[in-house]
């Protein structure tokens, strides 16, 4: 009887010790109660988490639209859309995955996009100005190094990279999704790798239309959709593209897109033509996840290389994915993104995915 009592006491003591020794980092993996996650902490009239942020620019004050979904004290993910000039809406697929893991989503339409003000001034479409805009949004939303994760997709990846190079002290984690850190390398990949996958006659006709600047010609998109978009942007028939994607792409600010990217998705010719940060990213110490897709418009090997150049890099490879890997290799993308955010929250800097 005494032996049984001793064993029982030892088990209880051991259990108590294990409970007491659980680190704060490990506890962060616990998913929040539903009521806590969805609790609206704002004052006044509730509006579903929408906040219009006033930003100061060289051309005056404007308002940009943000909306938060959920509450997390340590994992707040601000999303930078691509295009340039699309909207936050194609990120809505994340609602099916991240809230269930306790990650707070923050949608944001950049100036000139979606629900935000559109000054209709091409001088405003400028990368350094957008960096300062993101910083003002960060301050307004009270994001900091203890909770602030920044995800930029496509053009948003350029913006996120540039932001981190100037303001990484405010970041907890950085995600560069489906974007290279060199536009010259992006153009080279388009010309030397992707172009060679075209039927030569189709490519010749595309180049002919582009040379004439006849981008409004319906034949142009008629050739690009089956030969490029359905193979490298989102790998499914365009008629079956998810509604949030079509909604976001249908609202693209063409002035912003053409000014920054150029009129063609197939290569680059706008303001970003010479943007290159291959050398500078070595200075990034914030935990950084680079995401690449096998069929992407961007070179997946380059995006894997990014993870070796930053000081605390991780790489997520979507073997079935293209430029919109969050849709055409969805479970790989969401599982890896969630794993990265929660691992960094638990104190890891480099994450095996």
Structure description:
- This protein is an alpha/beta fold and 353 residues long.
- The protein has a domain at 47-184 and 272-345: 3-Layer(aba) Sandwich (Rossmann fold), CATH 3.40.50.
- Helices cover 40% and strands 15% of the residues.
- It is built from 13 helices and 8 strands.
- Helix 4 (127-140) packs across helix 5 (155-167).
- It is globular.
- Residues 1-28 have low confidence and may be disordered.
Shape: globular
By CATH, the architecture of the domain at 47-184 and 272-345 is named: 3-Layer(aba) Sandwich
Mean pLDDT: 91
The CATH homologous superfamily of the domain at 47-184 and 272-345 is called Alpha/Beta hydrolase fold, catalytic domain
Classify the helix fraction into a percent range. 25-40%
Structural class: alpha/beta
Give the number of DSSP strands. Answer: 8
Output the helix-strand order. HHHEEEEHEHEHHHHHEHEHH
Q: Characterize the biggest β-sheet.
A: 8 strands, mixed
- Biggest sheet, strands in spatial order? 1-2-4-3-5-6-7-8
What is the straight-line distance between the termini? 50 Å
Rg for CA atoms:
22 Å
CATH class of the domain at 47-184 and 272-345: Alpha Beta
**CATH fold topology of the domain at 47-184 and 272-345:** Rossmann fold
SS summary, helix count = 13
> β content, as a range?
5-15%
Poorly predicted regions are 1-28
Organism: Mucilaginibacter pankratovii
Keywords: Hydrolase, Signal
Family: Belongs to the peptidase S33 family.
GO molecular function: hydrolase activity
């Amino acid at each position: 009887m005494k032996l049984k009592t001793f064993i029982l006491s030892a088990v209880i003591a051991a259990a108590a010790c294990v409970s007491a020794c659980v680190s704060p980092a490990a506890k962060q993996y616990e998913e929040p109660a539903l009521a806590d996650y969805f609790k609206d902490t704002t004052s006044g009239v509730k509006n579903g988490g929408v906040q219009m942020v006033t930003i100061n620019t060289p051309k005056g004050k404007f308002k940009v639209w943000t909306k938060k979904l959920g509450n997390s004290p340590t994992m707040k993910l601000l999303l930078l859309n691509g295009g340039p000039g699309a909207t936050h809406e194609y990120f809505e697929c994340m609602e099916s995955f991240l809230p269930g893991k306790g990650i707070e989503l923050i949608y944001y339409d950049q100036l000139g996009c979606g629900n935000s003000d559109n000054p209709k001034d091409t001088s405003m479409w400028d990368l350094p100005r957008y960096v300062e805009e993101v910083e003002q949004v960060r301050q307004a939303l009270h994001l900091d190094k203890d909770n602030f994760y920044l995800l930029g997709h496509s053009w948003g990846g350029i913006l996120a990279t540039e932001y981190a190079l100037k303001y990484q002290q405010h970041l907890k984690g950085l995600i560069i999704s489906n974007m290279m850190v060199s536009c010259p390398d992006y153009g080279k990949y388009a010309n030397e790798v992707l172009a060679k996958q075209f039927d030569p006659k189709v490519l010749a006709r595309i180049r002919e239309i582009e040379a004439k600047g006849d981008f409004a010609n319906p034949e142009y998109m008629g050739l690009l959709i089956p030969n490029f978009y359905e193979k490298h942007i989102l790998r499914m028939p365009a008629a079956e593209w998810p509604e949030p994607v079509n909604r976001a792409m249908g609202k693209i600010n063409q002035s912003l897109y053409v000014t920054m990217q150029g009129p063609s998705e197939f290569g680059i010719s706008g303001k970003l033509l010479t943007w290159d940060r291959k050398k500078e990213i070595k200075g990034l110490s914030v935990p950084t996840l680079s995401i690449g897709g096998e069929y992407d418009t961007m070179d997946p090997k380059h995006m894997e290389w990014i993870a070796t150049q930053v000081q605390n890099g991780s790489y997520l490879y979507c073997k079935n994915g293209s430029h919109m890997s969050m849709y055409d290799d969805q479970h790989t993308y969401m599982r890896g993104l969630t794993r990265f955010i929660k691992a960094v929250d638990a104190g890891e800097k480099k994450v095996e995915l």
